[in-house]
Amino acid sequence: MGVREMRVGATIFNQNYMDWERYEAEERGERVPDVPAKSDREIFAEEIEIARIADSSGFDSVWTIEHHFTPYTMVTNPLQYLTYLAGITDNVDLGTMVVVLPWHNPVRIAEDVNMLDAFLGEGRDVILGVGRGLGRREFGGLNIDQNESRSRFDESLQVLKQLLSTGRVDYHGEHYEIADLRLRPQLDRDLTPNLWCAGGSPDSVAVIAQNNVNPLIIPTTSLDLSLEVARTYMDLRAEAGHPPGVHTKLALWTYVAETEDEARDGAEQYMVEYADSALRHYELRGDHLSDVKGYERYGALQRALSADAAPFLRGFFDSHPWGTPEQTIARATELAETFGTNELMFVFKYGSMPIEKATRSMRLFADQVLPALKELDPAPMDAITI
What we know:
TIM Barrel; two-stranded antiparallel ribbon
């Protein structure tokens, strides 16, 4: 059997970073213009180009994310977005990072995944990445009690595993009572290998490990914390009696240019802006998470960031792959091996980065970085950490 090449994807975020000042002033009740200086719809139109480039230049997958109500990322239904992308692409698989389970009925998620899989047909896959959610504004706006997120997350994961494996579910829980339900159109294969799960807290990781779901790593705080959480997952998974040897999928931010100085200028500005947008969206300099069930660890993070947010603001720039193609290859290789990764998903446009800079970086990446990364074959994380 030949060496299995690494998979490499591109991720679409749809941020309107320059609207944060207006948005926060409006939230405080101040009088501001009704619309951003750059419209949300203009950003949507621009970022479709990321998917087109990925599809035509050898990437394996295109991913998107779910968020609500702020300029952070404006994709409110990732499976709807991916269904549109399915119609304008020919080659790439399509993935979510993530669908937030407590915000949805899991039966509807399974239906949407199943229908998109039917549209894609043979040769292309839908990869369902799921997660638990963190944003106070989002839980509030969707009228979901954030204190219930752990139990909703656990139950939804169990319902999804049944539906995606057999097309049937019989489940009786606190939030969901489902009696012998069957999907239509019928499945033509087991889709649970395409189910991946992100977790940023011990509570979330415990649910993922217990259910033996593949680990999806999205370092919205820091790579160091993400590595710690991934290793916790591996330990809990072993304790639950599941077999060793698990690859992860890892999301990374990147900026590539011909010279290190040019890359440094872009990476430093836009990665710091991205970190700032995460601080604002998740309100990580606030104090509300200490009192939310299952989020106590984030409460400690809030206290630390309220005292000094500088390490967080520079964290993406200091740790993610950027630079010349050679520098980007070296750092991405190091991270793939550390995390035991078989798929890297790169974010090319974030912060206030103009689409022209994002696509220039992405095309250089596709030409000079992508071929080298596809030759990687990292060992699963268990083999690294044991």
